[in-house]
């Protein structure tokens, strides 16, 4: 199985020196199989076109290959939100926050979904 290091995605958003400060421990922890990355990328294409159900299938497979793939799990939450399956969305955002408590996007998305759930009552 090919492995792709998630640090590639992290360094797209952060200065490489910031990532180096985290050290090799995080680097080895976040190794994601290339197949999971490929499935995630395909899901993003699908969700970008509004095909949320199809995207969820790809994301589910990606997460089966890499259970700690927080980016894919967060995307699952986004898809569930778009499908108005709010409890499932919150569950996914909670899972992301368990994996990475400082994942800001998951926290923001969770708050937004909880607000939507409050409006539906």
Explain what this protein looks like in three dimensions.
This protein has 121 residues and is mainly alpha-helical. The protein has a single domain, classed as Serine Threonine Protein Phosphatase 5, Tetratricopeptide repeat (Alpha Horseshoe), CATH 1.25.40. It has a two-stranded antiparallel sheet with strand order 1-2. The longest helix has 17 residues. It is globular and about 40 Å long. The N terminus is likely disordered.
Task: Please write out the topology.
Blueprint: E1 3-5, H1 7-13, H2 16-29, E2 31-33, H3 34-48, H4 52-65, H5 70-82, H6 86-99, H7 104-120
Antiparallel strand pairs: 1-2
- Outline, from the CA principal axes? globular
Cross-sheet strand order for the largest sheet:
1-2
Oligomer: single chain
Helical amount among residues, as a percent range? over 70%
Radius of gyration: 15 Å
Structural class: mainly alpha
CATH topology annotation: Serine Threonine Protein Phosphatase 5, Tetratricopeptide repeat
The assigned CATH architecture is Alpha Horseshoe
Order of helices and strands: EHHEHHHHH
CATH class: Mainly Alpha
Round the mean pLDDT to the nearest integer and report it. Answer: 82
Structural features:
two-stranded antiparallel sheet; 121 residues; Serine Threonine Protein Phosphatase 5, Tetratricopeptide repeat; mainly alpha
């Amino acid at each position: 199985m090919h492995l792709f290091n998630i640090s590639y995605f992290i360094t797209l958003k952060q200065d490489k020196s910031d990532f180096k400060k985290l050290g090799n421990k995080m680097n080895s922890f976040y190794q994601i199989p290339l197949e999971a990355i490929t499935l995630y990328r395909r899901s993003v294409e699908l969700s970008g076109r509004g095909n949320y159900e199809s995207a969820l299938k790809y994301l589910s497979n990606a997460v089966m290959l890499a259970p700690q793939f927080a980016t894919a799990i967060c995307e699952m939450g986004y898809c569930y939100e778009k499908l108005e399956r709010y409890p499932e969305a919150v569950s996914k955002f909670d899972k992301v926050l368990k994996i990475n408590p400082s994942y800001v996007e998951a926290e923001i998305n969770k708050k937004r979904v909880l607000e939507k759930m409050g409006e539906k009552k």
